[in-house]
Amino acid sequence: MSLQVIGAGFGRTGTMSTKAALEMLGFGPCYHMVECFPRGPEHWSLWEQAAAGNADWDRIFDGFAATVDFPACTQFAAIAGHFPDAKVLLNMRDPDRWFDSTQETIFSKPWIDWLPASEAGGYMKATINDYFDGRMHDREHLLRRYHEHVEAVKALIPEERLLCFEVVQGWEPLCAFLEVDVPGEPFPRINDAEATKEIIQTLMDDGFAKTFGWEE
């Protein structure tokens, strides 16, 4: 299986809803941070190698038809180059609301402070934190990086290969872009903020190994 859809949008832009939608449309399984974390340090090391310029994209995405969210979005250009037939989906959201959401969840200060000493510290630094210059709570800087990222995607991906998408738009633009029929079911609306905060707290309390069952 080769990637057919590459998500270039940051986490907290509706990527969990988009993951569910893509899988409903037959572009699954869809890789997402929730798929990445449980795979553990051996898998994370592949991302660290990719960030260093030595990527094995076929191994990372083995068995997946699509990807959205971190960590893949920060490597969208390299992934799009490796899978030239895949379409690129740029999830977008009001930037200020995106920033506020990150500070409550994936970039919350307790989590960002806890991560460096964890098993995932190197992986998260290489794939996410470095992309934001480590300034995870600097509103002005993160908003600038958000806009720079959007412009980079638009500049590097040909227009006919790219869809800029907000989940509030629902099925129609996504299905037209992917050339599939609109399902009879509603577009999935997954507000995963509380679930994200819960898993982050669990990881900080128990660690990755215990949370994901690598140890008794």
UniProtKB/TrEMBL annotation:
Gene3D superfamilies: P-loop containing nucleotide triphosphate hydrolases. Coiled coil: none annotated. SUPFAM superfamilies: P-loop containing nucleoside triphosphate hydrolases. It holds the Pfam family Sulfotransfer_4. It comes from the Bacteria. This is Sulfotransferase family. It comes from Congregibacter litoralis KT71. The lineage of its organism: Bacteria, Pseudomonadati, Pseudomonadota, Gammaproteobacteria, Cellvibrionales.
